[in-house]
Design goal:
By secondary structure, this protein is of the alpha+beta class. The protein has 2 helices and 4 strands, in the order E-E-E-H-E-H. It has one domain: 2-Layer Sandwich (Ribosomal Protein S5, domain 2). Helix 1 links the parallel strand 3 and strand 4.
Length: about 100
């Protein structure tokens, strides 16, 4: 199990859109002590399982897109099942932001 720690974006400037559809950014991030847990298993395809039904698990999921891009760049047909245990939720992030604003 790998911990994927949350971070708060204290400043963000979008510099432009790249050819791959993502954006180049300049940002100031501050880590916080909450995290999601991620594990990986080999399989024939690339897929995501998540314990939070609000998280998309299809081709729009950034984990699926990143794993598929890695697979394609390596020229392999092997896949991965990504299991995501969500501990970072929107309500918690909102509470952190409100606490910072009120400090």
């Amino acid at each position: 199990m790998i911990r994927a720690y949350a971070k708060i974006n204290l400043g963000l400037q979008i510099l432009g859109r790249r050819r791959d559809g993502f954006h180049d950014i300049q940002t100031i991030l501050h880590p916080v002590d909450i995290f999601d847990e991620i594990s990986f298993d080999r399989c024939d395809d690339v897929c995501v399982d998540c314990d939070n039904p609000e998280v998309p698990t299809g081709s729009s999921n950034v984990c699926v897109r990143a794993a598929a891009a890695l697979r394609d760049s390596l020229g392999t047909k092997k896949g991965v099942r990504i299991r995501l245990k969500k501990k970072i939720v929107r309500a918690l992030i909102h509470e952190i932001v409100v606490d910072i604003d009120e400090a």
